[in-house]
């Protein structure tokens, strides 16, 4: 156990930085999730609706899975409650009947229009702890990390 404790507590700077970023991200996600929970909503489902909206309101489930980082079978499980609630609807792809398309409904758009401003305010308040130059620097650093990850 002593060996493992040394291994998990004495981290190289790169590893320490990585886990600091993970911890900060988890804390910020927690702020957002707390907001969604208070609204009686599920943050993961809202994120799916947002990604569909970013895609112009219609997306293939496989593309949605890639955007949110889940497997294709998992995205189907996650989409079911959204369809049951009337926030999305699925239909056959017009060019390839084997594929399904997911579309944001008017009810889904209404939900996003009503709920996102409050969430964005909560997130902005927390992120406001950083100055504008710090946020721009953080964005540039994240972009650099993403480039090297590809």
Low-confidence stretches: none
**Strand order, biggest sheet?**
1-3-2
CATH homologous superfamily heading: Winged helix-like DNA-binding domain superfamily/Winged helix DNA-binding domain
CATH architecture: Orthogonal Bundle
- Within the CATH hierarchy, at the fold level, what is the topology? Arc Repressor Mutant, subunit A
Instruction: Please give the number of β-strands.
Output: 3
Strand content: 5-15%
Helix content: over 70%
Oligomer: single chain
Net shape = globular
User: Helix- and strand-based class?
Assistant: mainly alpha
- What string gives the helices and strands in order? HHHEHHEEHH
Could you give a short account of the major beta sheet? Answer: 3 strands, antiparallel
Any idea of the CATH class? Mainly Alpha
Give the number of domains. 1
Mean pLDDT: 91
Question: Distance between termini?
Answer: 36 Å
Q: Kindly provide the radius of gyration, computed on alpha-carbon positions and rounded to a whole number of angstroms.
A: 19 Å
Give the number of helices: 7
What would you say this structure looks like, in words?
- Strand 2 (88-92) and strand 3 (100-104) form a beta hairpin.
- The protein has helices spanning 2-9, 13-38, 43-54, 61-68, 72-84, 106-127, 132-149; strands at 58-59, 88-92, 100-104.
- 71% of the residues lie in helices and 8% in strands.
- Strands 1-3-2 form a 3-stranded antiparallel sheet.
- The radius of gyration is 19 Å and the shape is globular.
- The chain contains 7 helices and 3 strands.
- It has a single domain, classed as Arc Repressor Mutant, subunit A (Orthogonal Bundle), CATH 1.10.10.10.
- The protein has 150 residues and is mainly α.
